[in-house]
Amino acid sequence: MSDTQIDATPKGDASVKADKPSETREFMVFLAKLAIFVFILRSFIMAPFSIPSESMLPRLMIGDYLIVSKWNYGYSRYSLPFGLPLFEGRILGSLPDRGDVAVFKAPPGNQVDYIKRVIGLPGDMIQMRQGQLFINDKPVPKVRVADMVERQTPYMQCFAPEYSKVAADGTPVCSYPRYRETLPNGRSYYVLDLIPNGPADSTEIYTVPEDHLFMMGDNRDNSLDSRFPAQEGGGIGIVPAENLVGRAMIGVFSTDGSANWFLPWTWFTAARWNRIGETF
Predict the structure, then answer these.
(1) Which of 15, 63, 82, 278 meets the CB 3.0–4.6 Å disulfide criterion with 255?
(2) Distance, CA of 238 to CA of 118 (rounded, Å)
(3) pLDDT at 170
(4) 41-60 b/e (C-beta count within 10 Å ≥ 16 → b)
(5) Measured between alpha carbons, how far is 45 from 135 in angstroms, rounded to an integer?
């Protein structure tokens, strides 16, 4: 017999062992590229936003999920993820139009995202008189329309007992008085007026400084907006244009809050399908 020894070690093992570091390296490169892509997407193109309060009823409801476009108003540190201070001021900046629904970092802390409607531009004089909006001493037309009627859900609780009603089919609903306002540029939208002679229904005249914006919620009696001084846990005052994050673009999902994570079919029954795809 020959003394030649046969090497029974599978020839592919060395190759597999050599490939493992390469595969790991490629995966890490993929993750890095993905992170860069997401950073660019969220910084300069679009970002998700969810509605946390009823301040923009009837247009926006708690449980709505939106896409916010980033390019409309230019870019500042506040439009970047985590407020990264990569540059000073605002580049490619432009002012919103009256009536835009915009996301911004709210004063005084400039840390929390708010969403409101743009009402006043630099140089404008804004005032509320007995529940009617005035811009530059001219009344903004306010017309009574059909009530906002929405089914009561975990995310839709009536503002006060007098607004709790029962629909013809026995469903508990909230019924709110609704009005249509039309701005000087022709933009129309609905507002709610829930408290006659409410605390912010009559105000002083606010003059909007240069590079600032006067922001208001459509739910006029349930919105701490530019009518109130900027303070922690309170109003936001008149907002610097630099604080703009982006413009509301489209609704991508909406839920009424009744879903149970452990009951998958409720994810579908809780969805407000009619609100998906609405544009701004």
Answers:
(1) 63
(2) 11
(3) 94
(4) ebbeebbebebebbbbbbbb
(5) 32
- The pair phi, psi for residue 24, each rounded to 5°, is -65, -45
Residue partners of 184: CB distance under 8 A and separation at least 6:
98, 135, 138, 140
DSSP H or E stretch at residue 37: helix 12-40
Query: How far, in Å, CA of 173 to CA of 235, rounded?
Result: 29
Distances (CA, A) of 234 to 107, 124, 212: 10, 23, 19
Going from the C-alpha of 87 to that of each of 80, 113, 167, the distances in angstroms are 10, 20, 54
Q: Which pLDDT band, with edges at 50, 70 and 90, does 82 fall under?
A: low
The full set of domains in the chain, from first to last, is: 51-275 (2.10.109.10)
Which pLDDT belongs to residue 6?
47
User: Which stretch of DSSP H or E encloses residue 254?
Assistant: strand 244-254
| 249 and 278 Cβ atoms separated by less than 8 Å | no
Using alpha carbons, select from 28, 103, 17, 114 the residue that is nearest to residue 67: 103
94-122 pLDDT, tens digit per residue, is 999 999 999 999 999 888 999 999 999 99
Mean pLDDT for all residues in the chain: 89
Q: Residues in the chain, how many?
A: 280
pLDDT surpasses 60 at 191: yes
User: So which residues are the catalytic ones?
Assistant: 55, 116
User: Residue 227 is encoded by which pair of tokens?
Assistant: 């009518």
User: In sequence order, which residues have a C-beta less than 8 Å from that of residue 229 and are 6 or more positions away?
Assistant: 235, 237
Whole-structure pTM value: 0.85
Q: Is the dihedral of CA 104, 105, 106, 108 positive or negative?
A: negative
Query: Are the beta carbons of 177 and 135 closer than 8 angstroms?
Result: no
